[in-house]
Amino acid sequence: MSVRYRHTQPATALLVSIVVIMSFILALYAWIGTSTPQARWPLALTAIGTFVLLAVLAWYFSAMTVVVTDDEVRWRFRGGREWRIARADIESVSIAPHPWLNGYGIRWLGPKRWAYIVSGRSTVEVRLKQGGWRRLGTDDSQGLLKALTEPV
After folding, report:
1. Domain range spanning residue 49?
2. What is the pTM of this model?
């Protein structure tokens, strides 16, 4: 099983979003804590729990690696499980935009339609013979498209 393509995309947009959310939460908790002194400890514990949760999410989605071999395409987030599609099950591939409103991470976009994206707005859409598609976010859409369309 020869590797034809391997690329890891950092999650710049997702990580910036998490930092902005953490900053907003910290400012909100500080404002509430100064105006309501009896709420300081519960707010501090809630803030720590929220930051831990966001830190875990930031680590899990901090990068996405896509690998194309002679037999399959695989992808995974830094901290997660690996998904696979046999190349024999692929009907077609094309570059597709990812509207920013659809968000980042793992997205269900309807029956048998999933997007896996950590940053940017470019994806390669892999249409499946049994119906549906998977959109794989990438900052190298031409390279991924080429690897998926070259004959085995």
Report:
1. 11-60
2. 0.84
